[in-house]
Design goal:
445 residues; 72% helix; disordered N terminus
Length: 445
């Protein structure tokens, strides 16, 4: 008789009807269907997490750029902090000095001065040789004028007063950045046609005033035209403006959406730790790609600016100054991605990971035993730490992540500081749990 089909004892009601018990064949079929359902469910989760991962990696670089654009446009202090170094960059100062000096010298009619001198000498009956000598003074006089003008302009541009005036002007005209990105209006930074121009009208006014005070009355005739420095030239400026407008709109929500997609990718994956490691690694690769794109754009930008409009070293200084915070954010996210992938790996079954965990455990255990022998006791606190190490470790990591989220514009140095503090806290917690008496988080010697 098949035991699987043996009827159960009659129920308490005395009906005598046996309960049905599945047979071995039916149980095997049930297990097969359950495994099939589990495999199908796993495949669906894997496919969903893969799609979410792909979206995360595609949006990650755009999220970084969008956050940078939004931050630079909406925060006046951040914008001023971005452009302030331009006033003290030697290549930029040299370009401005040369441009203004050329314009002043062009408006000083040195030839008329020498001609008037020669005519006066000739009318006075001076010898022809002296008259010819006066006429030959045009080149030395022009050089002398240029020297004086250059010295005066340099004094204005390299002074602390100009630095403060530059920052004040940019703070007052911060709306110019918005107009440049949208292609509307006017301001210190303007988009005109296919060019982005920096207007230095205030600097021209200061130089003209100082030159007039120094005795160069002709400097008052410096024209109001050509008071700009071309920062960028390109036929794709209108498309870039459209992209910037979109990024400005998405600047607040795109980073949040990217983080949510990354979290969903890890949560829906069958193996959370593996997906976390893959997501972090992929994000790091995308950040390296973004750094590469910035380098390529830098080269394209330098090639698009004619040397006659702006010297290459000045153009390089302008580009590097404007994108330095974007570079910093990209590098910071790259470091965070590497650290996250490394932590996820160290919690895995790999041999190097086991070696690291074992070494760390032995070190903290030995330290805890030494403290216990020295009379240090942690009491119930040590017991709780030993019994809930997973929670305390997760809490330390969560606190570190929260610190970076709340940190205003974290840098690589900030990430290193937070990681160092988290590791120190984990080490202290492990040592404290190791000081608990035997039977609480420690085996016998």
């Amino acid at each position: 008789m098949n035991p699987a089909a043996t009827p159960d004892p009659p129920d308490s009601g005395g009906s005598g009807n046996p309960k049905y018990v599945i047979t071995a064949e039916e149980r095997a079929e049930y297990e097969r269907l359950r495994r099939h359902t589990a495999v199908r469910h796993r495949r669906i989760r894997l496919a969903s997490s893969s799609v979410l991962l792909l979206l995360t990696l595609l949006l990650a670089p755009l999220a970084v750029v969008a956050a940078w654009v939004q931050d630079t446009v909406s925060d006046t202090d951040r914008y001023v902090e971005t452009v302030a170094p331009l006033a003290s960059e030697p290549p930029v100062q040299e370009a401005v000095i040369n441009r203004l000096t050329d314009r002043v010298v062009e408006n000083v009619d040195v030839a008329a001065v020498t001609d008037s001198l020669a005519e006066a000498l000739q009318d006075a009956g001076t010898s022809p040789r002296v008259v010819e000598g006066a006429e030959s003074l045009e080149v030395p006089l022009r050089n002398a004028v240029r020297t004086v003008v250059d010295r005066t302009v340099s004094g204005v541009i390299t002074s602390d007063a100009f630095q403060h005036a530059w920052e004040g002007a940019n703070r007052r005209s911060h709306a110019a950045v918005v107009t440049m990105l949208t292609g509307d209006g006017t301001g210190a930074v303007r988009a005109e046609g296919d060019t982005v121009q920096l207007h230095v009208g205030e600097v021209v006014d200061q130089v003209r005033e100082r030159l007039v005070d120094a005795g160069f009355e002709k400097a008052a005739a410096i024209p109001d035209t050509d008071r700009t420095i071309t920062l960028f030239q390109g036929e794709e400026l209108s498309k870039a403006q459209d992209t910037m407008r979109l990024l400005d709109v998405l600047g607040m929500w795109l980073p949040v959406l990217t983080v949510v997609l990354a979290a969903l990718a890890v949560w829906t994956a069958p193996a959370h730790r593996v997906m976390l490691m893959i997501t972090a690694t992929g994000t790091g690769v995308m950040m390296m790609g973004l750094l590469l794109v910035l380098a390529v754009v830098r080269r394209v930008y330098l090639d698009s600016v004619p040397p006659a409009a702006l010297p290459p070293d000045a153009a390089a200084a302008i580009y590097d100054t404007f994108v330095r915070f974007l570079r910093d954010s990209t590098r910071t996210l790259l470091i965070v991605s590497v650290i996250t992938a490394l932590v996820a790996y160290l919690y895995g079954p790999g041999r190097p990971a086991r070696v690291v965990r074992t070494t760390a455990r032995r070190g903290t255990t030995a330290t805890g035993r030494a403290l216990r022998r020295a009379g240090v006791r942690t009491g119930s606190t040590g017991h709780r730490l030993a019994d809930h190490q997973a929670w305390t470790t997760g809490g330390a990591f969560a606190a570190g992540a929260l610190a970076l989220v709340l940190w205003n514009h974290p840098t690589v140095g900030a990430v290193a500081l937070v990681v160092g503090i988290v590791l120190a806290v984990l080490a202290v917690l492990a040592v404290l749990s190791a000081t608990a008496p035997r039977g609480h988080g420690e085996s016998g010697p």
